[in-house]
Amino acid sequence: MDPDWNPKSEEFTKRVVYLQKLIDKFWNRWSKEYLLELRESHRNTSQNSLSQEISVGEMVLVHQDNQRRGSWKLGKVDKLIKGDDHKVRSAIVKVNGEGKKANQLKRPINKLYSLEVRSQDEDKSNSANVPETQANIEQLVQDQQ
User: Fold this and answer.
1) Rounded to whole angstroms, how far apart are CA atoms 25 and 28?
2) What is the pLDDT of residues 49-107, one digit of tens each?
């Protein structure tokens, strides 16, 4: 940074507003394009209903209406809950809470965005095929619990 540069506070304000709009556009586009495409690709690859989209042990982003997308919680599906029609309608998700305490949330399936990783607990025989990213994400969740 140039030591002789002395901008006015109005310049900073304009810059902050511009950067905030840019960030909002990014998150808007990311959620509309990537997250929805990710959900659709899971639907297209599954042969049956929603029950094959999300499984126990899977890492998910938990949609929260009252928070910005960048603040959505990362969680791990603990339990699937079926409706009267025997289709999976909601799930219990373990998310990081205050300090190292883990919280469990009950959320509808349409508020969960499955990540492109699988749990190491899910299938020990496929552990050689587990992406490195998955291990990093799971370690992050465990560190925050």
Assistant:
1) 5
2) 443 468 898 888 888 888 877 788 889 999 999 999 988 999 999 988 776 678 899 99
- Domains of the chain by residue range: 11-46, 54-116
**In whole angstroms, how far apart are CA 76 and each of 9, 60, 105, 125, 144?**
44, 6, 10, 20, 13
DSSP 57: T
- Quick one: DSSP state of residue 33? I
- In CATH, the architecture of 54-116 is Roll (2.30)
Please check whether residue 53 is in contact with residue 40, taking contact to mean a CB–CB distance below 8 angstroms: no
- Concatenated DSSP letters of 71-93: GPEEEEEEEEEE-TTSSEEEEEE
Instruction: With beta carbons less than 8 A apart as the criterion, state whether 114 and 134 touch.
Output: no
Q: Which residue has better confidence, 107 or 33?
A: 107
Q: One-letter amino acid identity for 25? A: K
Task: Find, among 119, 101, 143, the residue nearest to 60 by Cα.
Answer: 119
Instruction: For residue 128, report the phi and psi dihedrals to the nearest 5 degrees.
Output: -70, -25
